[in-house]
Amino acid sequence: MLERLPEYIDPLQLADKRGELKGQIPISSLDRLAAMLANDTGVVTVDLFFGREGRLAKIEGHIKADLELECQNCLQAVKWPVDCSVKLGVATSIEQVNRLPEAYEPLLVREGKIPLKNIIEDEILLVLPTFPKHEEACTVANFDNASVEPLVSDSLSSAENPFSILAKLKHTGDL
Hints:
Helix content: 10-25%
Distance between the termini: 80 Å
Number of strands: 8
Structural class: alpha+beta
Shape: elongated
Largest sheet: 6 strands, mixed
Oligomer: single chain
């Protein structure tokens, strides 16, 4: 494996050369992803192959990582293994995007070089759950009811309650 993956790549040039990128990238360098995690330590393992199928420049491979997301029930860290396959068709125009085979997701490249971390980060973000939770039932932290302030002040009298008239009608049977 490479010690360090290139920061920028030219997907069309790599496809022409039938290039291969294998290596690791720190999770902390993926800004959008790191902001969603409970812990941004660790690495993402990348294994990408570039090639051509006729006129179609393509990127295929795998991305693996062990992430720590925040459980939406208990707000504690939940380990989330990611093992996603990558199957991208490189296009330089919207017309080429529209002609891609269904099996390929489009990667629109306007300029020659693009950041590799953007491709990796996009693929990981697509497979993450919207509301991550522990598989087993997790408990929500119990709060002491005595420490919670009442929503309605005790000093508020029933005469000040706008629905007090309805309560009186209900007891008299005039309703």
